[in-house]
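Issue 218. Parser rejects a valid record. Input:
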Amino acid sequence: MTRYPFVQWIKPYIFFLFFLPLSGIAQFGQTSQVSLQLVSETTTLQPGQTHWLALHMRIGGGWHTYWRNPGDTGLETSIDWQLPAGISAGEMRWPVPEVIAEPPLYTFGYHGSLYYLIPLTVAENYQGADKISIKAEVNWLECKEVCLPGSQVIELGLTVSAQQAQADAQWQETFAAARSMLPLEESEWQISARYNGDRLQIEALPPEWFSSELTGLQFYPYQTMLVKYADQQTLSRSGKSYLLSVTLDANRTETPSRIEGVLVAEPGWRGEGSEKGLQINIPLTQGQIRQGTANGPASIWLALLFSFLGGIILNLMPCVLPVLSIKILGFVQQAHEEKTKAWHHGALFTGGVLASFWILAGTLLILRAGGEQLGWGFQLQSPLFLIFLSVFMLLFGLSMFGVFEIGTSLTTVANKTQGASGLFGSFISGVTATVVATPCTAPFMGSALGFALTQPAWISMTIFTFLGLGMAAPYVLLSSIPALLKFVPRPGRWMESLKQFMGFLLVATVIWLLWVLGLQAGSNVVIFIMLILLLVSVGGWIYGRWGHLAMPPKTRVIATIIAAVFILAPTVYGLTNWKTFAADVNLGGVTKAEGMAWENFDEEKIQAARAAGRAVFVDFTAAWCLSCQVNEKVAFGNAEVQQAFHDKNILPLKADWTSRDEKITRALAAFGRNSVPLYVYYPAKTGSEPVILPEIISPGIVLEALK
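Output the parser choked on:
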């Protein structure tokens, strides 16, 4: 597309000359898709103070309006104020825009709902009326197939009072959300810019504490005709720095000495879930363009290694052992089968693990792309999933007790193959192991998962694949090298006793799931689901008593139908009606646990304590994370650790992630994590960096960190 310098100057007139007649024709069948509302953050205004207003613009029907720099075409939204004497409005704050691509034109603007924030200052010597009216004329251009100029006068009545202004409760969340969409005005990032010919390069050096990975970095300039909007901006790395290469507009009249604008990137400039925009106003110098490399290959390979090692260690976590112990029984049986049969079982187990990781990871990425603040193990924050998993694990446990058999019994020594049902059982074992493994975060996993969720989808899925391969690696090794299976003991009657003992471990898992459910939804729901599980147990007993092969065909069919009714009907009823019995559960407040008075996590508490010279220890945990529970019992239940906390006057904060909490999710992301456990110690010394402890802790590790 050819652009000329004078086009920028006459662009507003082109719009009114060309689009105004067109919009007049369109108005016969098209009305404005924009509605406006003006709201105040406080119930009153106080002389000598600055307060905040928000202009809420709702844009419907797929139409869009424009940012302060519209891009190749368009007109920015403007506000003309009509204010009483003694009251003044400051510059409007613009939310981070989006690119609206309609080749060959590329513009910047907004769809849907957005808020513009405006500071409103009352003079200290204000002498006007107590009851005032704030009026504003808003002008905008809304476009879709055609463009319509819009204008509306909006009004807001307010009171000026000498008393301290109070926040309006109904708008607190609205203003908080609006501020999160504004670009940061200050940051610890070091940003510089240089140009050479038609190339502009912006370099961003992260602060030492920043552990996430920037992706999708884009520059939105305030100056018009500075860059070529249609050209793709490319991101590379040079050491720790991010290098963004942008094409300058060949038709620019001059190259400015400073550039102003907004840098936008995932996951956010303060970590996952933080502000995606960063406002810059920096010198622009002429110089050599630095050469970078692809965005973080070393980090990707390191993340793949960490995820594979974490997957191997995950087999030793308390979440996984109850299910994987069942798989050990399978290897005892397979040890004396055909060599290829053992390999088939290992391959199917790996397939079950990988399929589950792909489904869980894909679901997580889709939900996060939709704006949900979720992390690894997110499914155990859902009561629905806990109920379903409780039913599944109970049925699994009943089959281990021998109430009914799924496929051919592992203890049938004379049977040398398990057939199709045995292979399917290996696949299901892989699925189940993955589902119950996700609450745990093994060593190496935390940083790998945190990195994965900041990357493009294909990199994230690759990292999760390596995590699954690591988890399945020991079983693939055993099943693919027959020489190793000779060390496995021969099957015998002892296997029946061991299998039944494993059933008790599965029942213990059900109890744990119900405990987590109780923390999320209350004790009434637990009792309700226990009744559901009782009926499910009856269904399993009916199937085991009259549905086996020794019974006549007609009896088996009837028993199967009745068993299905006892299992499915209560389960569906429980999944659809559990909210009826749910209670409001407060996980916050001060709790006395492991001999220490933990307080509810809050960023302001950390800042206040450190400002007062007090050290802080934060325990990011969840009830469904068995690794967390073991760590807390072992480390924080230790008398020496408790005494050290007391002697050093350390503030212990517990960030309970049992139920989904976006505040805790963002706090985890600030450390590059999306899973628990995470232990962070803030020393009392001002300016010192927080210390991150390993995922598996002991009293010695905690005491060493406190030094």
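Fixed in the parser; the record now loads. Residues 1-29, 294-298, 407-421, 584-593 have pLDDT under 50 and may be disordered.
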